[in-house]
Amino acid sequence: MPTLWLVVSLLVLSAVGYVLGRQRAVASAGGNVKDLHSLPSYYGHNVAFTTLTPALGLLAVWLLAQPMVIESRVSGMIPESIIPESSSLSLVMSDVRRVAEGLELAVTQGALSEGEAGALDANTTDVRALLGDLGVALGSDVKPGILAAAQAYRGLNTTGTTVMAVLVGLVALVGLSWSYMRTHKDFRARNVVEKGVMSLLIFAASLAILTTIGIVLSMFFETINFFGLHSFADFFFGTTWAPNFRGDSELSILPLLWGTLFISVIALLVAVPIGLFAAIYLSEYAGPAVRAVAKPLLEILAGIPTIVYGLFALLTVGPMLISLFGKGGAFGVEWMTGATSVLTAGVVMGIMLIPFVSSLSDDIINAVPQAMRDGSLGLGATKSETIRQVVLPAALPGIVGAVLLAASRAIGETMIVVMGAGAIAKFSANPLESMTTITTRIVSQLTGDTDFASPETLVAFALGLSLFVLTLGLNVLALYIVRKYREQYD
Question: Whole-prediction pTM value?
Answer without folding.
Answer: 0.70
